[in-house]
Amino acid sequence: RFVTGLRLPTYLAAGALRTDFVRFALWFVLASAIWTPILVGSVAFAQTTIFSRNALLGVVFLLIVARFGSSFSSSKYRRHFVGRLKRIINWEFWPIQIFYLPVVVYVLLLAVKYRSLTAFAAANPALPAGGFRGESKYDIYNALRKSGRLNENLLAYALIRGNSSLRERLDAAWRFTDENKLTFPLVVKPDAGERGKGVRIVHSLDELTNAISLSEPDLIVQEFARGEEVSIFYYRRPHEARGQIFSITEKRFPTVVGNGVSTTEELILGDPRAVALAQKYMDHNKDRIDRVPAIDEVVRLIDIGTHSRGAVFLDGGWLKTPALESKIDEICRSFKGFYFGRFDIRVPTHTDLQLGQNLKIVELNGVTSESTNIYDPRYSLIDAYRILFRQWRLAFEIGAENSKLGARQTGVI
After folding, report:
1. How far apart are CA 337 and CA 124, in angstroms?
2. H or E stretch including 173?
3. C-beta separation of 302 from 283 below 8 A
4. Per-residue pLDDT reduced to its tens digit, 374-383
5. What percent of the residues of the chain are helix, what percent strand, and what percent coil, each to the nearest 5?
6. Cα–Cα distance measured from residue 392 to residue 413, given in angstroms and rounded to the nearest whole number
7. For position 51, what pLDDT does the model report?
8. Can you tell me the mean pLDDT for 215-236?
9. In terms of C-beta density within 10 A (0-12 exposed, 13-18 middle, 19 or more buried), how is residue 282 classed?
10. Given its phi and psi angles, is residue 337 left (phi above 0), alpha (psi -120 to 50 degrees) or beta?
11. Residue 359 in contact with residue 353, Cβ under 8 Å?
12. Are the beta carbons of 312 and 378 closer than 8 angstroms?
């Protein structure tokens, strides 16, 4: 009813299809009740406000209206617009610079309380600046391996130096796969990356070559572990014999289900949650975006367990068991000088996790780790800040205690 030129065809089609007259009339009365005031009001507004004084301004206004009207006639554009609105309304998708403003204020208050802006950085003497930012993943893996008790929990890895020639980098990667008898897929990621930036899962020799040749910084090539992925946030005060699990995040990889008619792009745009991150999912699936999945075919949209890349995070408190907490505490206490941070872990099943067995450490992040269970849709914005504030209180508390024991605090500059 709102699209010029479609009214007459609509009436004819309704008759040809034997549409119920009463239902048809009710819908069109409703449409007319909405459309008529808009049409009459816009004309009156244009005559009295726009065209009365400046005809050029009126022409520009009409061009803008026509442009938006043309865009909104596209269902694809409307769905992208809905996605943008969802990213604005739902705090889960807010830019980190905006979301973390209250946390920054709270950290400054804690700095006043502890009389040190960087007291939290002493929470992990084993890591540079406690793992504040840009710490080397390779150095952390090596430190974990040197503990001697974690080899069964570590994935195979190798460092590819960015300042080497392309041939040397490719040779190092191929040598790593041969020595460890690995097959694809493999994980390729920056040695000092953050929030999943630059992480790729490569499924062929061509993809591995492409990932290495297009990257300049140092890279980590790592064994890929299948199964369930979780994040476990751990802390231990220096005077305590045992540490505790602060939170567990259950990670899920979003999917869409084919109907035999819609393309992957249409399925993404039609999904109530996926539409909010449509562009990320489309970029990740660009090679199959126009493919039409079969009926009931499950299409995984992302295979990297990072919230900023589109993974779904849920509070995994139900996975916490004495056996798991004991295993994580054993791992952390064997890493001398580590008291506070988050493990990203893969396990064959959630049962394995609860039993504290078959754990494979994907990454270990330090003092600025995020308790990622905050992104569970069940949590409000207030809930998220409550969790993060407690996390930072613990970081300052542990850092201050380590400082009293002789740990060196990082300077502001």
Report:
1. 6
2. helix 166-179
3. no
4. 999 999 999 9
5. 50, 15, 35
6. 21
7. 58
8. 94
9. middle
10. left
11. yes
12. no
- Which amino acid type is present at position 194? E
Residue 2 and residue 399: Cα distance in Å, rounded?
63
Q: Which helix (H) or strand (E) holds 10?
A: helix 7-16
Of 245, 241, 371, nearest to 318 by C-alpha is 245
Q: Pairing state of beta strands 200-202 and 298-300?
A: unpaired
Rounded distance between C-alpha atoms, residue 124 and residue 133, angstroms: 13
Query: What value, to the nearest 5°, has the Cα angle with vertex 249 and ends 243 and 252?
Result: 155
3-state secondary structure of 389: helix
Rounded CA-CA distance 239/403 in Å is: 13
SS3 category, 223 = strand
pLDDT at 3: 64
Distance CA 328, CA 359 (A): 10
Give me 349's structure tokens: 């099943």
Q: Which of 59-63, 95-99, 157-161, 316-320 has the lowest mean pLDDT?
A: 59-63
H/E stretch holding 361: strand 360-365
Q: Checking DSSP bridges between strand 186-190 and strand 157-160, what pairing results, if any?
A: unpaired
Is the separation of the CB atoms in 280 and 310 below 8 Å?
yes
Residue 238 has a CB neighbour count (10 Å cut-off) of: 15
DSSP code of residue 369 = -
What residue type is assigned to position 28 of the chain? Answer: F
What's the token pair of residue 397? 């508390």
Please state, in angstroms and rounded to a whole number, the distance separating the CA atoms of residues 169 and 173.
6
Write the DSSP symbol of residue 238: T
Integer Rg of the chain from CA? 28
* E strand or H helix that includes residue 68: helix 55-72
d(CA 86, CA 94): 10
Q: Can you say whether the dihedral through the CA atoms of 91, 278, 302, 222 is positive or negative?
A: negative
Q: Are 208 and 220 in contact (CB under 8 A)?
A: no
**CA distance linking residue 128 with residue 122, whole number of Å:** 9
Which of left, alpha, beta for 293 (phi over 0: left; psi -120 to 50: alpha)?
beta
* Residue 342 host element (H or E): strand 340-347
Average pLDDT of the segment spanning 243-247: 98
Six-digit token string for 24: 């048809």
- Token output for 137: 């993943």
Counting every residue written for the chain, the total comes to: 413
